[in-house]
Write a structure and sequence with these properties.
By secondary structure, the chain is an all-alpha fold. Helix content is 79%, strand content 0%. The chain contains four helices and no strands. α1 runs antiparallel to α2.
Length: 137
């Protein structure tokens, strides 16, 4: 399962928001001293609210990632237990009928291990869509 927002996009949005906040603060500091005193309290409130929103966004992102990681770990452990139980139950079958299911189970375990050991690629698998120019003919 993919993250709801890519980390690079999140960092970019955070940087843009901080730059806008700094620019707004700089624009607010330039007016006369009287306006500055009046606006400082409201700017601090806005700044606090923006930072609180970012903290919540980061907290929810890490919470979602941790829950997905724990769920994947639980499913892997459950699959390993199921394979082990199946292998043990095959010993209850007569010996002449054990060899084929055990070989199939070994092939299954090998394929799963290969899946977990294979490095994941970051390239998206995009389907090629027909060009809109070609479809107007």
């Amino acid at each position: 399962m993919e993250a709801p927002i890519s980390p690079l996009l999140f960092c970019l949005l955070l940087l843009i928001a901080m730059l806008v906040l700094m620019d707004g603060r700089r624009a607010a500091v330039q007016p006369a001293a009287k306006k500055l005193v009046d606006m400082r309290g409201s700017l601090e409130k806005i700044q606090g609210a923006v930072f609180a929103a970012f903290v919540l966004l980061v907290a929810f992102t890490f919470s979602g990632a941790a829950s997905r990681f724990n769920e994947k770990r639980r499913l892997i452990a459950e699959e390993a237990n199921t394979v082990g139980r199946t292998y043990l139950r095959l010993q209850l079958v007569p010996e002449q009928a054990q060899s084929e299911p055990q070989a199939l189970l070994r092939r299954y375990v090998d394929s799963r291990l290969e899946t977990y050991r294979r490095p994941r690629t970051a390239k998206p698998q995009l389907r090629k869509w027909p060009s809109p120019r070609r479809s107007r003919k």
